[in-house]
Amino acid sequence: MKRCIVCLKDIEDSAEECPYCGSYQVDLDSDFDMQYDDPVSGRSAAAPSRGRKTESYDRPARSRETAPSDRPAVKERTKSESIKAAATKNGSSSRILIVVAVILVLALAGTFIFLLKTGFFEKRAVKKTVRGYYEAFTEGDGTKYADYTCTPEMREYMEKYLVECKDVFGDISVDEYYKTYFLAEEATYEDVRIIDCTLYDDAVIQSVEKEFKDYYGIDIDIEKGYSVNTEFNYKPKDGSATKGANIVRVIKVHGKWYVYI
């Protein structure tokens, strides 16, 4: 008795087919070649039987349209293009910023030149000098008064004058002299307003220089001068208040502005 190779039921040794499942009986120990379909090539081929040496065959490699080695190159090109695009964008932004910066610099330079030619900065310094002069009166500050009215030549003259007149004024400094004899009024000047500033011409400048020479005996080089029309509220020591006006002469000597009294 032998068993069916499929259903494993006992059948006769001579049976070529299984009476139970109908399977054809093959002697597995015999040299019987069985046909089968090759899953790689798709062609029919003889199946190797047990006990027979079979020749090995090489399975063909799967074909691909793009080799794996090509992919990194594609990515590299894409990265390079991205970097180039970013650099182009940054370059355009930088050029725009440079143009804007140049325009701003030119605008500021033009504004500065315009203000310089119209005397804006000069008149601003003149007005500051006039206000400092009135503040010295209001505060009774002899040092501030001297700073706003004494050129170096004038201070030198006053120092010599006070030494020569020591028997009259005593041992007194220039600042103390101005405080005692110019600011003794103790009046205040409030709400000082600059109405206008008129630039002196050369004839007026020469006239003021002549005054210094004739009255004080000193030579002085005046660079520029302004006549400043001012208005203010005047409050003397007694507490009364009146509106006042005054024309203040301002001269420029050694690059600094002074009130000429």
Describe this protein's structure.
This protein is α+β, with helices and mostly antiparallel strands and 261 residues long. The chain contains 7 helices and 8 strands, in the order ββββααααααβαβββ. The protein has helices at 70-117, 120-139, 142-149, 152-164, 166-169, 174-181, 202-216, and strands at residues 2-3, 10-11, 34-37, 44-47, 188-199, 224-235, 242-253, 256-260. Strands 5-6-7-8 form a 4-stranded antiparallel sheet. The protein has a two-stranded antiparallel sheet with strand order 1-2. β6 and β7 form a beta hairpin. α2 packs antiparallel against α3 and α3 (142-149) crosses α6 (174-181). The protein is rod-shaped. Mean pLDDT is 82; it is low at 47-57.
